[in-house]
## 1
Amino acid sequence: MANDLLKGKRGIIFGALNSQSIAWKVAQRAHEEGATFVLTNAPIAMRMGEIKNLAEETGSEIIPADATSVEDLENLVTKSMEILGGKIDFVLHSIGMSPNVRKGKHYTENDYRYYGQTMDVSAISFHKTLATLYKHDAMSEWGSVLALSYIAAQRIFPDYNDMADAKSLLESIARSFGYHYGIKNKVRVNTISQSPTVTTAGQGIKGFKEFINFSEQMSPLGNASAVACANYCLSMFSDFTKYVTMQNLFHDGGFSNTGVTQPVIEQFGDE
Ligand SMILES: NC(=O)c1ccc[n+]([C@@H]2O[C@H](COP(=O)([O-])OP(=O)(O)OC[C@H]3O[C@@H](n4cnc5c(N)ncnc54)[C@H](O)[C@@H]3O)[C@@H](O)[C@H]2O)c1
């Protein structure tokens, strides 16, 4: 279903690795809604990547950028404006990676070099992206910048490990930068806190399958899918949400406000 919701809008979409990626769905839906955009991912993800298929499907160009490199981000931002023919209306930061999770390091025994990399890739890259856009005056007035988060920023989910700390920082950056960018030229900055979703990054978390089932039963509406998340992102890029900024927005079927549900409590009966 297309409604030209993003007709004429220009964007940058980070993080489409494969067809499961949330960013992939955002790109497909943004294309259907009339947006033009540049796709970007880490150079290493391009080498193993299927992103070319997505670029063909959506008529987009690809600019590789390691989101931890300010130099790469400068190149991305300036080239995107050239390619798209003007300032940027929306940016999706859909990036997460923890070497501690990958190497199975317990939270209490995290490797601090890895810990620093988790913060840089998963959170500080958002600051770097915003700072680069800000410096180059690259965003249109009322433009919208989004990053994807998870409720482990507020509550402990043990296997989420140091990604929880990264998400807390990510959400804080959205608040702080949202203030400055709002004042400077009415640019909105938010995070969307998404249900657990089957993707490459999601499946990296230990016990993910059990966890996704638990979350499904703990959410009155059930887990939100990647496509549903994409649609929410589009609404945040549209002109219908102009005064929403500096927020962490839960897109989780009600999980975040649920103490317990009947199907879950029934699993703790006597018989
Ligand atoms: N899948 C879930 O359960 C879930 C839930 C809530 C939030 N999120 C968040 O959604 C976002 C997207 O993840 P996804 O689930 O679609 O998984 P994904 O694995 O498809 O996407 C993660 C992306 O990050 C990119 N990336 C890693 N290091 C990078 C770097 N240095 N520079 C640029 N890009 C880099 C990867 O190449 C990949 O495209 C992440 O922020 C993730 O934490 C995911």
Note: The mean pLDDT is 96.
## 2
Amino acid sequence: MSQLKQMSHIDSAPPTPGKFKMDKASYFNRVRWHTSLAKLAVWSFVFLGAILIFFLRSPASSPVPADLSRRSLRTYSWGGPVWEKRVRASAQVRSRNGFAVLVTGAAGFVGTHVSAALKRRGDGVLGLDNFNDYYDPSLKRARQGLLERNGVYIVEGDINDEALLRKLFEVVPFTHVMHLAAQAGVRYAMENPGSYVHSNIAGFVNLLEVCKSVNPQPAIVWASSSSVYGLNTKVPFSERDRTDQPASLYAATKKAGEEIAHTYNHIYGLSLTGLRFFTVYGPWGRPDMAYFFFTRDLLKGKPIPIFEAANHGTVARDFTYIDDIVRGCLGALDTAEKSTGSGGKKRGPAQLRVFNLGNTSPVPVSDLVSILERLLKVKAKRNIMKLPRNGDVQFTHANISYAQSELGYKPTTDLQSGLKKFVRWYLNYYSGGKKAVE
Ligand SMILES: NC(=O)c1ccc[n+]([C@@H]2O[C@H](COP(=O)([O-])OP(=O)(O)OC[C@H]3O[C@@H](n4cnc5c(N)ncnc54)[C@H](O)[C@@H]3O)[C@@H](O)[C@H]2O)c1
Ligand SMILES: *[C@@H]1O[C@H](CO)[C@@H](O)[C@H](O)[C@H]1NC(C)=O
């Protein structure tokens, strides 16, 4: 980066400007001409040298495609023996029959919790995250700090960086990939649609391309979303229900991911499990989600917007506590069969699954506010508003019987007790000078 800056500096400061005064003696003109030529030569060498140094010093770093949001216009540097040693140490398996798991989106909300849980039980874990600023990156850095203290290293990079992914698989033959990196959020899609295509479609394809070509191929568990149920009105949502009427670009990219997963399973024998998360909440959560910013706004005395559907219809969510989601993710990894391909070719049929991970008890958003009022001991200024038609659906409710039978998934935390833990974390985190809490 500093070299780049230097280069542009050189660019904008050209050598002696070519002004020749014809009334001076030709001798002086020639001397001047020679010196400016010499200067030009010197600067050219400096310039070439700078380019050379730039490439020599970062042999393995590759910039992400430049046609994207400003946030992804970054160059990460990686590679080198020290870096490889760190990667290997983090991915070191410590339990018998443990996995070596690459967790994408590890600095994210779910990624942090899943990484910590895997590490705790003795699996090797390596994180990957681009630390984008969709929401406050300092929260991602704090989660990174938490994982670091638990022996998990997060490589800073983009899932679109094919060279980086190949390098990671070269250093560690990952048995599993827990793919959680994505552009989340429903409303932001109208502001920055490209970021959804970049991370949820292009990035996913890039990851699958690398996974299909390595030997052995890893098994992949990845996060889809309950939003694929879109405008469905039949509840509870079951895995076999239609998912062809998404209400947001976010939902459409997750649905696309499910179809892309089908393709890579079909052609290359990759073992793929998609998890449709239902509104996950908890400590270290995402500041763009309602329970999080309601808490912030309640404490500030700001009015809380509560959406209402047509005819005063209740807007409700099947809020799912993070620990339950983590158990579902681990259950999916534990039951994932091996991929069957090798040498980039399918050798037999491979596992392809999709599961709902919800809580099976939808709660009206107004009840969420009431619980927060009690926990925070403040009175909310409720601002009832019509649900805008920009992506949010009225109701989500998961049928989890399939996950129950296949993964042993059984959520145990109700919204009241889960929010209690969230609020405790929130108050601690934001009052303690952003000091990490465990
Ligand atoms: N939290 C929920 O309620 C919920 C619900 C349904 C689905 N999901 C899905 O679960 C997954 C995890 O969600 P979360 O709540 O932890 O979100 P999050 O935003 O906290 O985590 C995602 C992480 O991925 C990283 N990331 C994004 N694009 C990347 C890229 N191109 N390369 C590398 N890293 C990138 C981000 O920096 C972030 O840290 C996502 O796929 C999300 O779509 C979440
Ligand atoms: C839940 O899904 C299962 C299939 O996994 C199905 O047999 C059952 O009928 C569904 N239950 C409801 C109430 O829709």
Note: The chain has 13 helices and 14 strands.
